[in-house]
Amino acid sequence: MPESRVPRRRRYLVCEPRHFAVQYAINPWMHPDEPVDVIRALDQWQALVDTYRAHGHTVDTVKPVPGLPDMVFAANAAVVVDGRVFGALFHALERRPESVPYEAWFKTEGYDVYHPESVCEGEGDLVPAGRWILAGTGFRTTREAHSEVQEYFGTPVISLTLVDPYFYHLDTALFVLDDENIAYYPEAFSPGSREVLARLYPDAVLATREDAMAFGLNSVSDGRHVFISPGATRLAEQLAGRGYVPVPVDLSEFYKAGGGIKCCTQEIREIRS
Ligand code: ARG
Fold it and tell me: Per DSSP, which regions of 190-261 are E strands?
């Protein structure tokens, strides 16, 4: 019998995809000449929000801005740990203006936002994992930003190098299950980074390329429920075998921009008692 997992209530920040589109290509998933169905995107996104709420989580929304088609990917705007907000400096010039409405949201909620000097894309590459922060580099967030994150939070930062352009953000190749464990796709990482992950997480759930390409690693876990792409069938089985409860949510319209469940979700982490 797998052990019974305990969920922890979360606070998520999301952004309605009212102005979602693929207008430029900054990752291999994006093809501006292929149409995006905004109505379908809105329906899928609403289902994600409803699913979070149905599982007891708080969901806040930031108002979408016309002309910022990737703003729906809330994860990229910041990483929040212990109520402290480390903002983003987007790699693509097209995305840089997203920082303004997100910062405004944080300000009205009473948070100050730290402005990084180096390129970094929030929780897309900076993944708080219990006692440390896992940090991706290679395509977007820079190593300099990793040091800035460590200096800012005073938390060890583990730098990991991504090598496959389909997995350009850390959160497309790895997600945190709970304070102890993660799931990831090893081939998305450089050999040395793979070794680091194997040392830190000897018991990790390892995903296949197929599940990774189905956005299976772009999942959100509350410690028990794993909100996961329905295409990642093998991974969902593995998670169920470990006592987690996979909750499939289809965000396929967003894959056209290179994003899935986790990309659309930023977690606001307060100090834990
Ligand atoms: N089109 C966006 C980009 O390439 C997708 C971002 C996905 N977000 C994420 N957290 N992986 O920047």
Answer: 205-206, 220-221, 225-228, 245-248
